[in-house]
């Protein structure tokens, strides 16, 4: 990836793999748009045992994000399984560490979106997405959900909301991301990429 190529940061936490699959589909949607790339990043788990230290590089999957990944992105897609209607603690921990970016206005006017996975159909998909966007608005980001021009929103019987892509994982977290859910992830990635390019150009003109 060229340092000059704008990229969408697809930042997520995944425990059972569904959110990671969604992140990959969003990244595929981003990279279907010419002129922009996707950067997949995850976050380390958190522990109540303060002495526990994870390796700097995870054994598999995306590498851990740092603040520079967020500072230099042209857009952000933030993904998490739901935890009582909110994002999971590891992702919240990372978001809470971004105050220096907030103080410098590093994310102002950059588009952002969110995606989530739940065990039950009414297990907090929409409330998780809505609460995830709150810190993004504090950062001055421009939130982009999934518009109803994506007719899959009217067809899906599991995941999918206008606030962002979602997935029904099942009570055992073993239900695969289905065709409708994948399509909405790809559509969300495409929309975020197009907005990222437009707003990136606007910010460059303002310099």
UniProtKB/TrEMBL annotation:
One Pfam family matching this protein: FMN_red
UniProt entry tagged with the keyword Metal-binding: no
Gene3D superfamilies, alphabetized: 3.40.50.360
UniProtKB keywords: Flavoprotein, FMN
Domain spans labelled Flavodoxin-like: 8-193
Cofactors that this protein relies on: FMN
InterPro entries the record matches: Flavodoxin/NO_synth (IPR008254), Flavodoxin_CS (IPR001226), Flavoprotein-like_sf (IPR029039), Flavoprotein_WrbA-like (IPR010089), FMN_Rdtase-like_dom (IPR005025)
Family named by the database record: Belongs to the WrbA family.
NCBIfam families named among the record's database cross-references: flav_wrbA (TIGR01755), PRK03767.1 (NF002999)
Descriptive protein name: NAD(P)H:quinone oxidoreductase type IV
Species for this entry: Vreelandella boliviensis LC1
Gene behind the chain: wrbA
